[in-house]
């Protein structure tokens, strides 16, 4: 290894092993129609991913709700049969 620890590699302070480079900023690239940042692209992809996650969670919750209702109804029917003989 080159003598740098894990903490030094991920440190954003001025005295880091990366020569005082401060990280965490967006890289701006110039294109023909203007500038785009990596942060904006990342946020867009995250938004798409969150929409998918939200849809999957919603369908999973609906399945859970339906299954629970069927289960409770079964228990209720079994209890009703045993108590009303």
Automatic annotation (TrEMBL):
Region (Disordered): 1-50
Basic and acidic residues: compositionally biased ranges: 41-50
PANTHER family for this protein: CDP-DIACYLGLYCEROL-GLYCEROL-3-PHOSPHATE 3-PHOSPHATIDYLTRANSFERASE, OS02G0740600 PROTEIN
Domain of life: Eukaryota
Comp. bias (Low complexity): 27-37
UniProt biased composition (Polar residues): 1-12
Ranges of biased composition (kind: Gly residues): 16-26
Protein name according to UniProt: CDP-diacylglycerol-glycerol-3-phosphate 3-phosphatidyltransferase
């Amino acid at each position: 290894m080159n003598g740098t620890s894990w903490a030094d590699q991920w440190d954003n302070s001025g005295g880091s092993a990366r020569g005082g480079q401060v990280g965490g900023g967006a890289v701006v690239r110039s294109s023909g129609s203007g500038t785009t940042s990596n942060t904006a692209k990342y946020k867009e992809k995250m938004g798409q991913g969150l929409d998918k996650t939200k849809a999957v969670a919603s369908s999973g919750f609906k399945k859970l709700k339906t299954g629970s209702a069927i289960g409770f109804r079964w228990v209720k029917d079994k209890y009703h049969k045993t108590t009303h003989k």
